[in-house]
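User: Please predict the structure of the protein below. I'd like the answer in structure-token form so I can feed it into my own downstream comparison script.

Assistant: Understood. Taking the following sequence of 381 residues as input:
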Amino acid sequence: MLAVDDSAAEAVHRIFADYLGGDLGDRAIATRLNRDGVPCPSALRPDQNRHRQGDGWQGSTVRAILENPRYTGYAFFGRWWKFETLLDPDDVAAGHIVKFRRSSPDRVVRCRRPAHPALVSVEEFTQAQLLRKSRAAGGMRGRAKLERTRTSGARPYILKGRMRCGICTRKMQGAIIRKEHTYYRCLARSLAPGSAALNSHPRTVNLAENVVLEPLNKWLCQVFDRTSIDRTVAHLVESQGGSAEKSTTRDAAKKRLEVAEAKLRRFQAAIAAGVDPVALVEAINEAEEQRAATSAELKGLPAPSALTAAEVQARLDGLDDVTTIITEGKPERLAKLYEDLGVELRYDIAKEAVYATTSPRVFNVRVRGPSCSLSLRLSLG
């Protein structure tokens, strides 16, 4: 049975009361909680939220609490379902990723009796869900339907999800300015009150997309051009760090094992040719001890994770022609190329530079250990 955490329960009571008692939205409630010094879940339980910064309440946190039916005291099952999808349908060796999707209402199961103490009544929770739907139905354009839907715009953001602010490390959001210029921006007002990043974060951090694309594409063409692929392969292999040293240790042990087995084969051949076995007893015992010790050493070594130069070369050959895609300049193909190359960008507004990293998707960490990556500073001045 789930136990009630009194300090966290007070925050849940307050969130439902504020939402049902006025015109406050998710973000407004989060702002009030931060202003009053109420610890957010990741700050209250850092051991359960190691992937979060714990720098305050966010609107998404409030939304998750308001939409969680377990606060009514009943246990629910099947709210989300898990499925696996291949990273690349044409390359099974690239591995797969696990995703979650919200189940349809008819697939959600609720227990008949309360399973733990309730923090809100069923009536309060139902009222909150009806209020959320009514607000969604009468909200901004594009949300006129009762069920919230998300529409995609006609203009693609080529660097969507790849550009991060160098001050707060959050992903920058795409925006269209003056109906024609594509920018990526980070707003200080969306930071949690009291966040350390507010001390140095400008009100708005803006970065034009076209300023980044030219030096980025130029660098990628140089790195993945077929004429310089050997140098790229060498750099990618070197970027694996300590994995290369482990691979060298394994290779040396394999060589010692081969030498010991070769000695035993020679001794067996000598005995078959008529040599007295007694004269070879000590040599045979020594070779068998060496083989046994080396075999035990190999079993104790971790599984090989570093990619060899030949493996890196083979995987790079599986990529589309980078130069051709960049020359064509089609936004959809460019966005797919950046995804395959694992492009990550960080904008340093003080130095007027973007730090770019590429970790080709064929080096998937879930499949073959450490990733291979290349980095460069792109000057924007």
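That's the full token string. The chain has 13 helices and eleven strands.
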